[in-house]
Amino acid sequence: MDPAVRGKSATPSVGPDVGRQLVGHRRQEILAAATRIFAEKGISNTTVRDIADEVGILSGSLYHHFESKEQIVEEVLVRSGGERQHARYREIAETIDDPTEAFAEIIRLGVASVARSPDRARIMRNDAHLFRSLPRLRFVEKMRQDNLDLWMSVVRRGQERGVFRDELDPDVICRAVSDAVLSTFRWFSPTERVAPERVGAQLVMFYLEGLRRP
Fold first, then answer.
1. pLDDT confidence of residue 1
2. Which CATH architecture has domain 81-211?
3. Mean pLDDT in runs of 10 for the chain (214 residues)?
4. 1, 27, 106, 202: which sits with the fewest CB atoms below 10 Å from its CB?
């Protein structure tokens, strides 16, 4: 045996591509664990150690992937779906000219998003007070308000065209509908009999009947 290699491990070294894949996999494990714990315990009651224990790593190791708990919150609520959802709301508001169809599509998208990630919806609903009161988490409140602004732009367009009732306050209506859609995580569990599309259609029918001018 070549003396130069005597005593070296027979285990092949991990290349940079494999290393990046492992880091990415661990990062996703952390985000998945954090989402579950935030939904169960709330953000304030969750520590970095709780998340690390759930994944099976030391707390210090978690900081190799995220700078802080707040960064994890941002990844869970904004980066992991929140930005795409906002982009889709904007696309609906700006490209679907018919306000009735645009508002219906917004509701359907909201229900589908909750069904796809109920834990994320639970966090957004249950920890809403934190997003308004804690400066370091206000980026979540800004995202929520930006979404509401898009919803309200559709309602105002409907009022301007005489499609929706003038006496209704767009801010009140959109906050109420948004809260109702977000709260479907409390009672709705997708099954073969009741799909998210059916729930979305029912909410569209209910709310649009109240919005439309007689």
1. 47
2. Orthogonal Bundle (1.10)
3. 46 48 77 95 95 92 90 84 89 97 96 92 91 84 93 97 95 95 87 80 90 85
4. 1
Instruction: Pull the structure tokens for residue 28.
Output: 């996703």
Q: 10 Å Cβ neighbour count for 149?
A: 15
Contact status, residue 200 vs residue 112, Cβ threshold 8 Å: yes
16-77 maps to CATH 1.10.10.60: yes
CA–CA gap between residue 142 and residue 145 (Å, rounded) = 5
Q: Write the CA distances from 76 to 30, 57, 114, 122, integer angstroms.
A: 10, 19, 14, 12
What does the pLDDT read at residue 23?
58
Which tokens hold the place of 189? 């569990």
Structure tokens at 158: 């409907």
Q: Is 78 helix (H, G, I), strand (E, B) or coil?
A: helix
The pTM for the full model equals: 0.80
d(CA 109, CA 33): 25
Please enumerate in sequence order all residues whose Cβ is within 8 A of that of 161, keeping only pairs 6 or more positions apart, or say none.
99
Distance in angstroms (rounded) separating the CA atoms of residues 150 and 174: 10
CA distances to 5, 20, 61 from 16, rounded to whole Å, are 22, 6, 19
Q: How far apart are CA 145 and CA 135, in angstroms?
A: 15
pLDDT at site 91? 97
What pLDDT sits at residue 193? 66
